[in-house]
Inverse folding.
């Protein structure tokens, strides 16, 4: 008779329970390295902060919470991801790919597609989410934070 520690299913779950926090920590380490590459500080952050300070503080908090999760969480690993979660992750991958063409376009398509995927059926609401939310984000970053979006198909019209 197998003991619970010898059960292959429980071993896979134990490994998957550790894989998520370790994956988050690896991502944070990569993002931390990226934050050391910033050259210019947005004017709103020029009050004594270096360009890398804020992202590194957030990454440090995420790393701390991931380590806490790794050692303190004793719950079982979750079951398989639902189809909705998998489709949402697919939309996120699509967002990254379209973001290479134009970030504003990617935000619009992602917001509208996500609203539709999660059950919104009123066309006018989907269109509003796809237009108003990305426009608000764009003007918040461009106008207030003075952080420019990368140039792309649509953003080239605004920045010229």
């Amino acid at each position: 008779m197998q003991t619970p520690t010898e059960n292959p299913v429980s071993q896979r779950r134990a490994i998957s329970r550790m894989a998520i926090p370790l994956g988050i920590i690896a991502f944070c380490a990569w993002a931390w390295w990226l934050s050391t590459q910033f050259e210019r500080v947005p004017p709103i952050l020029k009050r004594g902060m270096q360009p890398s300070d804020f992202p590194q503080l957030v990454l440090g908090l995420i790393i701390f919470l991931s380590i806490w999760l790794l050692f303190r969480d004793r719950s079982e690993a979750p079951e398989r991801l639902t189809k909705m979660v998998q489709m949402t992750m697919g939309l996120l991958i699509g967002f990254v790919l379209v973001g290479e063409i134009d970030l504003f376009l990617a935000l619009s398509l992602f917001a509208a597609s996500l609203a539709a995927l999660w059950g919104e059926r009123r066309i006018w609401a989907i269109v509003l989410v796809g237009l108003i939310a990305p426009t608000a984000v764009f003007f918040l970053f461009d106008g207030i934070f003075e952080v420019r979006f990368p140039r792309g198909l649509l953003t080239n019209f605004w920045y010229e």
Remarks:
- The first helix runs from residue 8 to 35.
